[in-house]
Amino acid sequence: MTTEIERIVTANHPEQINFTEMYVTHDALRRDLARMAEAAAAGRADAPKVLDGWATFKRQLDVHHGVEDAWLWPNLKKHLADRPDDLALLDDMEAEHSVIDPQLAAVDAAVAAGSGEVAARVEELRSALDHHLTHEEVAALPLIQSVMTVREWGGFRLAMGRRQKLSGAAEWVPWIIDGMTPDDARRWLQRFPPPLRMMNRLFWEGRYRGRDLWSY
Predict the structure, then answer these.
(1) Three state DSSP letters for the chain
(2) pTM
(3) What pLDDT, on the 0 to 100 scale, is given for residue 15?
């Protein structure tokens, strides 16, 4: 996580899209799946705080993929009408999203049944999601950089903000910095306006930490 933050934040060229929020969200999703895998391996995937962490992971994944499907891919396609290979990449992105929901449901079903398949279902999901996130980072983000403007990318961030709303941001911000070093968290939070940083410091982060997610 820290390598990506340092690379992206310090290379903040105004004429280029800054993908920091995309990278840190991907890292947080990977982090939570690793925690779910650890809980499953310990036979504690059904512990209340684990289930709370799992619900938070699913909520943030739904927001992230939902805004990509509703805003990012359709707007990116407008630039690619005469580029069939690049359009095929976007089809791949959407197809990879469609694989995730059944795998989430399979994990839920295994946990609810108390079966011995939880760890296997989590690993299947973990493999599929990591493949998708890596594919997006390696192929889709460079494509976005090559055809979209910084202003257009701002539209995606606005769409994400509308989907999250303030109540969602109150969870998303401390969820992102969970596990970051203090220096990385401080650098990342500097990207936001002072009122949001104050809200996080005074209310959001303490409330999030008090939930003690993933403990068992």
Answers:
(1) CHHHHHHHHHCCCCCCCCCHHHHHHHHHHHHHHHHHHHHHHCCCCCCHHHHHHHHHHHHHHHHHHHHHHHHHHHHHHCCCCCCHHHHHHHHHHHHHHHHHHHHHHHHHHHHHHCCCCHHHHHHHHHHHHHHHHHHHHHHHHHHHHHHCCHHHHHHHHHHHHHHHHHHHHHHHHHHHHCCCCHHHHHHHHCCCCHHHHHHHHHHHHHHHHHHCCCCC
(2) 0.92
(3) 79
